[in-house]
Amino acid sequence: MAIEGADIVKAAACLGASLAMGLGALGPGIGEGMAAAKACEAIGKNPKEAGLLTRTMLVGQAVTESTGIYSLVIALLLLFVV
Amino acid sequence: MAIEGADIVKAAACLGASLAMGLGALGPGIGEGMAAAKACEAIGKNPKEAGLLTRTMLVGQAVTESTGIYSLVIALLLLFVV
Amino acid sequence: MAIEGADIVKAAACLGASLAMGLGALGPGIGEGMAAAKACEAIGKNPKEAGLLTRTMLVGQAVTESTGIYSLVIALLLLFVV
Amino acid sequence: MAIEGADIVKAAACLGASLAMGLGALGPGIGEGMAAAKACEAIGKNPKEAGLLTRTMLVGQAVTESTGIYSLVIALLLLFVV
Amino acid sequence: MAIEGADIVKAAACLGASLAMGLGALGPGIGEGMAAAKACEAIGKNPKEAGLLTRTMLVGQAVTESTGIYSLVIALLLLFVV
Amino acid sequence: MAIEGADIVKAAACLGASLAMGLGALGPGIGEGMAAAKACEAIGKNPKEAGLLTRTMLVGQAVTESTGIYSLVIALLLLFVV
Amino acid sequence: MAIEGADIVKAAACLGASLAMGLGALGPGIGEGMAAAKACEAIGKNPKEAGLLTRTMLVGQAVTESTGIYSLVIALLLLFVV
Amino acid sequence: MAIEGADIVKAAACLGASLAMGLGALGPGIGEGMAAAKACEAIGKNPKEAGLLTRTMLVGQAVTESTGIYSLVIALLLLFVV
Amino acid sequence: MAIEGADIVKAAACLGASLAMGLGALGPGIGEGMAAAKACEAIGKNPKEAGLLTRTMLVGQAVTESTGIYSLVIALLLLFVV
Amino acid sequence: MAIEGADIVKAAACLGASLAMGLGALGPGIGEGMAAAKACEAIGKNPKEAGLLTRTMLVGQAVTESTGIYSLVIALLLLFVV
Amino acid sequence: MAIEGADIVKAAACLGASLAMGLGALGPGIGEGMAAAKACEAIGKNPKEAGLLTRTMLVGQAVTESTGIYSLVIALLLLFVV
Amino acid sequence: MAIEGADIVKAAACLGASLAMGLGALGPGIGEGMAAAKACEAIGKNPKEAGLLTRTMLVGQAVTESTGIYSLVIALLLLFVV
Amino acid sequence: MAIEGADIVKAAACLGASLAMGLGALGPGIGEGMAAAKACEAIGKNPKEAGLLTRTMLVGQAVTESTGIYSLVIALLLLFVV
Amino acid sequence: MAIEGADIVKAAACLGASLAMGLGALGPGIGEGMAAAKACEAIGKNPKEAGLLTRTMLVGQAVTESTGIYSLVIALLLLFVV
Lengths: 82, 82, 82, 82, 82, 82, 82, 82, 82, 82, 82, 82, 82, 82
Hints:
The structure is a homo-oligomer of 14 chains. Chain A has helices at residues 5-45, 50-81. Chain A is mainly α. Chain A has a single domain (8-81), classed as F1F0 ATP synthase subunit C (F1FO ATP Synthase, Up-down Bundle). In chain A, helix 1 (5-45) packs antiparallel against helix 2. At the A-B interface, helix 1 and helix 2 of A face helix 1 and helix 2 of B.
């Protein structure tokens, strides 16, 4: 049983990285899907504004993506820095 | 079993950072996605107000983002300060 | 196994800070997103009142944000004061 | 292992404060968001009554906020009094 | 390990107070938010009855608040009496 | 470790009181909120019957409250009688 | 550690009473709230039948209440008979 | 530690009785509430058939109640027979 | 600690009986409530077919009840045969 | 502590039988309830096809029942064969 | 404590068989119920195509059933082959 | 206590196979049921295209089935190869 | 108790493979089912575009499938490479 | 019991990889399915814009996919780098 404290910290960091990324992908994944769904619906009704709608969708998704990227950053920090 | 108290604290901080960020990305991710979805729908119906609607969407998402950023701050504090 | 009581308290404070902030970001995140979504919908239908609607959205979101800020306060107290 | 009973109580108080505030922010956060969303919708339809509607929204949110404030009180009591 | 029975009881009371208040704020928080949302919607449609509607909303919320207050009472009893 | 059986029972009673009240406030809180929401909606449409509707809302909420009061009774019994 | 079997049984009965009542208040609380909500809606549309509707609501709620009362009975049996 | 096997069985029976009744009250409570809600709605639209509708509601609720009663039977058997 | 294997089996059977009945009452309880709700709605719209609709509701509920009865059978077998 | 391996297996089989039946009754219970609800609704609108609709409901429920019966089979196998 | 490895494996297989079947009956049970509900609705509107609709319902349910049958196969393998 | 490592691995594989198949049957079961429900609805409205719709439903279900089959493959690998 | 570290790793890999595949089949299973349901609905309304709609459904499902395939890859890596 | 720290870390990495991928596939799987569903609906109504809509769906799904890919990256890093 040659278990040392650093191993416990490392194991916690591994589990933590997966929880941060796994849970952090859940919200943006659902949210961005809703944005994409409504954008398709809107373009189907008003195809002349497709460029405008695609741009709005991408801007809205980019902001939504931000919390997913924060999760990625925390997960990478947990794996390589801590 | 050379485990010391500081290791337990560090392991708890690693798990805590991941939970704070993972759960903290869930709410804003879904909320911002709803805002982006409704903005696309509104622009599809009233494309002349696209600039106004994009601005409103971004302001609304920025406020929503705030709780996600609080989570990021707590996660970073847990990793580097505590 | 040089674990002392203060370490247990510190570890509990770390986990607690993350739970307070993670769960506390969930509710306001979803709630503020609903407010932003409906504000976009309303501005799309009645763009002349955009200023009034943005102001109402921000006031409503500010009150909603309050519970998120309480959570941030509790999390910071757990990290630095306790 | 110099753990004493007071440490166990302190650790339980730390975890308790976070659970009280984290869960206690969930309900009011969602509820106040619904109120803000409907207020925006109503003002968009009837902008002449904006003052009346904002006041009603704020009164309704203030009552909803009360359970969030109870949670804050319990959390602060757990941190500083118990 | 100078842990005595009174410490266990105290720790359970701390956790219990937080669970009682945290869970007890969830239901009334969502319920009162629904009441506030519908009151805003109703006033937007029929602003002449704003006083009547605000009064009804407050009465309905007051009854809903009661279970939240019971939770507060139980939490305070757990902290200071037990 | 001077823990006796009576302490275990007391600790279980503390946790039990909080669970009984916390969970018991969830259902009536949501249910009474729905009743209040619909009463506001109905009064907005038919303000002449406000007295009748408020009375019906209060009667309906009173019955709904009953399970919340049962929970309060069980919680108080757990704290002071058991 | 003077823990005896009767203490374990008593502690389980305390936790059991709280779970029975807490969970048992959840379903009827939501169900009766739905009944009260729909009764208000119906009276708002057809106020002449208010007496009939209030009676129906009360009968329906009384049956719904029954499972809540069963839970109360089980909880009281757990506290005082077992 | 004078714990015997019969105590373990008794404790499991206590917890079991509460889970059986608590969970068993959840489903019928929600289901019967839906039936009562729809019966009120139907009587509000068609008050001449109030007797018929009340009877149908009661028959439907009685069948729904049956699973709640099964749960009560199992809970009582766990408390007094096992 | 005079715990024997038969006690462990008996305790597991007690917990199992409660889980089987508690969870097994959840699904049919909600399902039969939906059937009763729709039957009331249909009779309110078409009261001349009340007999036919009540019969259909009862047949549909009887089939739904079957899984609840299977659960009861398993629970009774766990209590008295195993 | 005269616990043998066969007792562990028996206890696991008891818990397993209850989980298989309890969870296995949840899905079909809700699903068959939906079928019965829609059948009542359809017969209310088109009572001349009541026989056809009742037959379709029963066929559909019978197929849905099948997974419930598989669960019953697994539960009985766990109790009497394993 | 004559517990051997084969007993642990057997106990895990028993619990596993119940989880596989219990969870595996949940999805198809709800899904097939939705199919049966919509088939009844469709036949009520268009009774001339009852044969075609019943066939489609059965084909759709048969495919849905497949994952339930996979679960049954895994459960039986766990009980009798492993 | 003649438990060896291979037994632990085997027990984990048994539990794993059941979780993989149980959870893996949940998603496709609900998804395929939605497809079958909508196909019945569409055929009821447009019975002339029944062949086309049945084919589309089967193709869509086949793709949905794929993740269920992946789960079956993983479960069988866990039982017989690992 | 001849348990070695490699056995713990292997057991974790077995459980991990099942969780990855089980959870990973849940999201795509529901998502692809929604796509298939809407494709059937659309073909029923506009059967002339059946080829186009089937192609769109398959492309959309293929992208959705990708996260399910990632899960399969991770599960296979856990079983055979790690 | 020749378990060393590196084994604990490896086991945590295996479990972590599966949780990251399993949870990370849930959100995008549901979100992309919503996008595909709405794209099919829109193409059915406006088949002339099929190319535009397919492109929008793919762009929206690609952004949604990103959080799923982050999860895959974290899972692969956990398996092969950590």
